[in-house]
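Case study 2.
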Amino acid sequence: MKNKEPVFEWLLGDDNPPVKYLTLTNILGKSQTSKEVRGARSQLMEYDPTLIILDHFEEFIHETNRYRRYWKIH
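Prediction:
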């Protein structure tokens, strides 16, 4: 791919905070303390799919205890 800029513009868009956060941290290597990363992370709790997942999290816990192996709950 010759011009990566449009791809990064898309990945860093404000319409999908999880993708933006992961792009900043995993692809671009930005620090957790950077202003951009902190901003993306703060948007996660306002993102509708995140809220839906959290609304049903208790149901998931009761269905399986395997989550403890994969996630750290803070």
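The radius of gyration is 15 Å.
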